[in-house]
UniProtKB/TrEMBL annotation:
InterPro entries: Abi_system_AbiD/AbiF-like. It comes from the Bacteria. This is Abi-like protein. Pfam families: Abi_2.
Length: 302
């Protein structure tokens, strides 16, 4: 796909301001080149998905297990979360589990604003779940935990849940249990570490530029180093939780795939897909290809 096809067909659908952001940030002369960077950014975003999933699962499991043990019950949510901090979807999740344990139609009662809704919801929870067997309690816990977003766990790392004087809150009481590999300095910075991960995750989800959130001029080399730094910080956030999981992940295909995509050679191959260039013949494989970046043949990209 070359020339005006990108300008007229694709850029119009994506919106000019979105592509303009890449054109300005990297001081590019054509929209075709800017679109190529946009495509590369999307591919980079894709390489972050496995590590983000690993962080979210590792963090929620470690925190849930530690807090449930600390509280002596898997039904810890309203006991630990401050009322203003309860996840926005908690009541909906709570409702859906309780609804399984009553012959009343809680969905209908809630929809019709029936005054008995809250009474039945509370009494059913008390009788069937809070006073139920451990399997019922664990089922409730897993439904809530499995549907909470990363931000819900990051919230529990903020200063409101820290008590360095009397050790009556989550941290530092559970720090060594949840984050066994955190150093002294990192133990005091856990909220910032994982909140940065949350912010990056949101940028990826909204297809925003990964390497340069401020939109100021940056070179491609600086961009690549910036993205690598973010990826390494993400990997380190797994290490804080589990050495074993960290080792497995860095040896996985996901990490090697990231290293391949986050390279100038790979980017150049994308640029050459959208920007017209000169014909070259690879001296190694004999492949004929077109390039504006003077890149290597695909056979030389490891």
């Amino acid at each position: 796909m070359k020339g005006t096809i990108v300008d007229v067909d694709i850029i119009a659908k994506l919106s000019l301001p979105r592509i303009e952001k890449y054109k300005t940030t990297f001081k590019l002369s054509s929209y075709e080149h800017a679109y190529a960077i946009y495509v590369w950014n999307k591919m980079l975003a894709g390489t972050f998905i496995p590590v983000m999933q690993a962080i979210e699962v590792s963090l929620r499991n470690a925190m849930n297990d530690a807090i449930a043990t600390h509280c002596g019950t898997p039904l810890w949510f309203t006991r630990i979360y401050r009322s203003n901090d309860l996840p926005s979807n908690f009541q909906k999740l709570h409702h859906s589990v309780v609804n399984r344990h009553t012959h009343f139609d809680l969905d209908l009662l809630k929809k019709t604003n029936d005054p008995s809704y809250k009474v039945i919801l509370k009494s059913t929870y008390e009788r069937k779940i809070k006073n139920g067997n451990i399997n019922i309690k664990n089922s409730y816990n897993q439904h809530i935990v499995g549907n909470l977003m990363l931000g819900a766990w990051v919230t529990l790392l903020n200063a409101d849940y820290v008590d360095n004087t009397h050790n009556t809150k989550l941290w530092p009481a559970l720090t060594n249990t949840v984050f066994p590999n955190a150093t002294g300095r990192e133990k005091n910075d856990l909220f910032n570490i994982y909140n940065d991960i949350r912010i990056l995750r949101n940028r990826i989800s909204h297809n925003e530029p990964i390497c340069n959130p401020n939109g100021q001029f940056i070179s491609i080399d600086e961009c690549i180093e910036s993205v690598k730094e973010k990826y390494n910080k993400a990997l380190h956030s797994i290490l804080l939780l589990s050495s074993k999981r960290h080792k497995v992940f860095i040896e996985s295909h996901a990490s090697s795939h990231f290293n391949m995509v986050c390279s100038k050679e790979y980017l150049n191959s994308i640029v050459d897909t959208y920007v017209a260039g000169k014909i070259k013949i690879c001296k190694y494989c004999g492949n004929k290809f077109e390039t504006v970046t003077n890149r290597k043949c695909f056979c030389r990209i490891k």
